[in-house]
Please model this.
Amino acid sequence: MDRRNKAKDVLIFSFFTIILISLICVNGYYINLYNEENKTMGCENMHVLVLTGSPRKKGTTAQLAEAFIRGAEGAGHKVDRFDTAFMKVSPCKACYACKPDKKSCSIKDDMAPLIGDDGLLLQADVIVFITPIYYFTMTAQLKIVLDRIYAIG
Model:
């Protein structure tokens, strides 16, 4: 096996590992999207937030996100989707305006629906990250969003 094929296999394995890990929700429940009866195991009517990281609108990551959302909605869950690559999100400035008095982030951009006082991140029971793997990690667009979550933490 040459280097190129081995690297490709590692990336494919990493991609699917990230997807499988992301199916585990923060409270330890698991949404079973492959159950023919569209039932869940231990959780019903959850609020699911899907964060995608791909800059390709019709790529495999978008297709995977759409399939996940169809399955979650079919199981009776409320789903919100945030496509990080198509939003105007600035990186964290480390100004700490969000920390002393638990004020909101000083940066005014498309992150407001996620990290506002009653933002989607605080409402979500489950957060699902769907991203291609670039250089053995998530995309830069998704990483910027994750860094900005610091404002609510």
Remarks:
- The chain has a mean pLDDT of 75.
- Residues 53 and 84 are 6 Å apart (CA to CA).
- The chain has five helices and three strands.
- The two ends are 45 Å apart (CA to CA).
